[in-house]
């Protein structure tokens, strides 16, 4: 085989990641033509990619340091040109580990080259090594301060890390250098939107569209901001324009589905999800939204199957354990771990499945939020409760808790609703002082966990509850926890409300209080689920488009027979809801006394 054929075959081996074979052929080429410098560059490259970095450098240096300074400079440039070409090739083909090795060498050989730092940053960013990418982007900026593209890349990295202020600052710096970049304006809008600066985000998206009116992504982003503001017509127009530009854009269909859901047009939302899935069968977000719609409509058989797509979404990564996931097979005599997921309310709602698993012959271990551990240890059928993060005991199989309904084939008619399934601990003493025995005892909660994605919609303020405090023969008790409990001290008027915040340490204490109450009035929080699981009369105040589990257009719920639902008739209108509650509570009090 002549040298030309050897080089061609060596290059093929290199492209196939067969480094040892490539190294052997390049060595043959050098032996046959020792004065051809390019063969040394290629041999060093093959050695580098094979993980033999020191040998690669020795190979290159054996050539670089043999000539005069002018010759060394020329040969170094020749080597760097090859590294640049190869680095870009591997970067563009998604071979990031190889590209990273090459660019690290590029930077080492030419530490004053800003392009090398930028490309190394790109390689690291593509691998999710965001902090390292930022460091190299910043090195590049120091060498070339007016590089708008590198500022843009820095903005992207900070955005991915949710360091939004820094992302915004770097996008703005990029625009200060190059103000007419629709891409940078779009991404700046994304950071502003996530920061809650909706009007500024809208301005960025609109400016981006002015510069490039054919970008479907920007229309989608603008529509999502309008959607979050409740501006349905504007949102729909943007999503539709996105589809006009890209008829098969699954994100546009998914965003349309979200918009229709928010405005309770569920059939249209389903059509959009179905179309997105038709175009891209494995599009997890569309499956997820389809699940929420089906569950909201009471189609649990299909809804819980689609609900499994939650694990394919980047926002909801599964926690794998070193044992099999239960698939519904025989578990008689086995120990099953019910894995906690989502919020405390979810755990309370779905722990109802324990008796069914006990009937299948299983021993039950429950992983729980710390605030629920003491209370769940009192639930019949549970053998052991461990807090999230604690060392798990031995078990045979496990399952995320909200996958149990699918495994057991839950339908609207077969929801396990034997109430109560949670009871207060007998040893927990929580006397309610300042209570007139002739008065009704009513607990209230006006806000949920502020970290919940939809907390802004589902929570209200204590101020909104003021109309009910004027109803006579009731003692009100605040079960509110968290920062919102401070609102009690902010009310200037005297109100008939006993603040239990400082006395309640966990949900065992909350259950002890609820057991002594005649009624609980709450927004959609864990307390609603706890009171419902205890069989206590509970009125749940719901936003215009509430969570799927409360379904649609009904005042009751098959999950909790003792629950009555008070829904918003207009988005954000808590005043009308509380007026209905006050009227109903007046009648409730009259009948109870």
Automatic annotation (TrEMBL):
<keyword id="KW-0677">Repeat</keyword>
<dbReference type="InterPro" id="IPR011990">
    <property type="entry name" value="TPR-like_helical_dom_sf"/>
</dbReference>
<dbReference type="Pfam" id="PF13424">
    <property type="entry name" value="TPR_12"/>
</dbReference>
<dbReference type="InterPro" id="IPR019734">
    <property type="entry name" value="TPR_rpt"/>
</dbReference>
<dbReference type="Pfam" id="PF00515">
    <property type="entry name" value="TPR_1"/>
</dbReference>
<dbReference type="GO" id="GO:0016757">
    <property type="term" value="F:glycosyltransferase activity"/>
</dbReference>
<dbReference type="Pfam" id="PF13432">
    <property type="entry name" value="TPR_16"/>
</dbReference>
<dbReference type="Pfam" id="PF01075">
    <property type="entry name" value="Glyco_transf_9"/>
</dbReference>
<feature type="repeat" description="TPR">
    <location>
        <begin position="80"/>
        <end position="113"/>
    </location>
</feature>
<feature type="repeat" description="TPR">
    <location>
        <begin position="3"/>
        <end position="36"/>
    </location>
</feature>
<feature type="repeat" description="TPR">
    <location>
        <begin position="250"/>
        <end position="283"/>
    </location>
</feature>
<feature type="repeat" description="TPR">
    <location>
        <begin position="182"/>
        <end position="215"/>
    </location>
</feature>
<dbReference type="Pfam" id="PF13414">
    <property type="entry name" value="TPR_11"/>
</dbReference>
<dbReference type="InterPro" id="IPR051685">
    <property type="entry name" value="Ycf3/AcsC/BcsC/TPR_MFPF"/>
</dbReference>
<keyword id="KW-0802">TPR repeat</keyword>
<feature type="repeat" description="TPR">
    <location>
        <begin position="148"/>
        <end position="181"/>
    </location>
</feature>
<protein>
    <submittedName>
        <fullName>Tetratricopeptide repeat protein</fullName>
    </submittedName>
</protein>
<feature type="repeat" description="TPR">
    <location>
        <begin position="216"/>
        <end position="249"/>
    </location>
</feature>
<dbReference type="InterPro" id="IPR002201">
    <property type="entry name" value="Glyco_trans_9"/>
</dbReference>
<feature type="repeat" description="TPR">
    <location>
        <begin position="114"/>
        <end position="147"/>
    </location>
</feature>
